[in-house]
Amino acid sequence: MLGKAYFFIADFYCAEKSLIIEVDGKYYDFQKDYDANRDAVLASLSLTTVRLSNEELKNMNAVKEKIGRYLK
Question: Can you give the pTM of this predicted structure?
Fold first, then answer.
């Protein structure tokens, strides 16, 4: 993985907390391996990826709690 250039566009990125938030729609079911590799590359750069499904967005309190666990 390292030594190779990668280019990713995150849905949301907080540089201060080294946190990436990805909102996964139905397409996610077809690219789980790609996303797992992408998350590993980002983790090697000391970045944490939080994945949210579109379904989770229906309960914003739960979304805030989930994200909050990574901000502590």
Answer: 0.78
